[in-house]
Amino acid sequence: MTATANTLASGPGWHVADVICTASAGDRPVEEEHRDFCVAAVTSGTFRYRARQGTAMLAPGSLLLGNSGTCYECGHEHGSGDRCLSFHFGPAYMDRIVADVPGARTLTFAAPRLPPSPALAPLLAEAEAAREIGDADAFEELGLRIAGVAVSMVSGVTDVRPGPSRRDQQRVADAVRRIELDAEAAISLSALADGTATSPYHFLRAFRQVVGMTPYQYLLRTRLHRAAVRLRMSNDAISAIAFEAGFNDLSTFNRRFRRVMGETPGRYRARRAGCS
User: Fold this and answer.
1) Of 40, 158, 162, 259, which is most buried, counting CB atoms within 10 Å of its CB?
2) Do 60 and 139 fall into the same domain?
């Protein structure tokens, strides 16, 4: 076997895998089948991808597009090995995404790939960073966003977003209150969307429009804000504050705190203690 797939995260109707291939020019391509719809972000290496939609060369920054139930093969005659973040969506799950992309008409990808583009770059950087730091909770949102961009670009849909409706604003307000009341708990995007009777993709888009960030980003900011308040007002152990805020381990908390606050939790507490 020349490829290994490590599942990073999964949920009803979707999963994402870190796929590492070590095939070289001397290895004969093997025909395989897409069991679900596939949108795979190439993060290193190059390879040739042949599917029913056509043949394309895939390079870092591009997206491989696969239709459910179709056969494909990959070749490495131009170089050895590649690595991809491979998002997989069941037909029913993908159908709901397509239904919520304004102007999209078909569930089938007509092209075999999307080339690297400025529109994709920030999103793919987020996904690769999530893989590297082991942020499994980020992948549900990332998968939806990447699939939505792929459907829009392949369909030739211009991303003109109407302002959120009054109903969507109310739905987002309800979700924000839920996060505020239970920020330390594990709250998935699907659970939040179910609570507003909308699809995850529609809810994610509405939330970003209203709040200016994704639900997961808002949840993390809420947890970090509360932890910062406790660091300033109490002498509790940093590990206790991290766990009670909803972080599963201290290293993750330290890393996220420093990224948002600009310094480590210990430094943050010590500097403010010196100012009191």
Assistant:
1) 40
2) yes
Range of the domain at 251: 218-275
Distance of CA 18 to the CA centre of its chain: 13
Q: Which residues contact 77 (CB under 8 A, 6 or more apart)?
A: 25, 48
Q: Which 8-state DSSP code applies to residue 88?
A: E
Please, which residues have CB within 8 angstroms of residue 60's CB and are 6 or more apart in sequence?
42, 43, 44, 45, 46, 116
What are the two backbone dihedrals, phi and then psi, of residue 231, each rounded to the nearest 5 degrees? -60, -35
User: Residue 225 is part of a domain; what is its CATH number?
Assistant: 1.10.10.60
Domain count, the chain: 3
Q: Is residue 161 part of a domain?
A: no
Each residue of 10-54: pLDDT tens digit? 999 999 999 999 988 888 888 999 999 999 999 999 999 999 999
In the chain, DSSP assigns E strands to 3-11, 14-21, 32-33, 37-45, 47-51, 54-58, 63-66, 71-75, 82-89, 113-114
User: In angstroms, rounded to a whole number, what is the distance separating the alpha carbons of residues 260 and 37?
Assistant: 35
Output the DSSP codes for 203-237.
Answer: HHHHHHHHHSS-HHHHHHHHHHHHHHHHHHH----
- 171 and 198: one domain? yes
Angstrom distance (rounded) from CA 99 to CA 201:
10
What is d(CA 109, CA 33) in angstroms, rounded to the nearest whole number?
15
pTM for this model (two decimals): 0.85
Q: Do 25 and 100 reside in the same domain of the chain?
A: yes
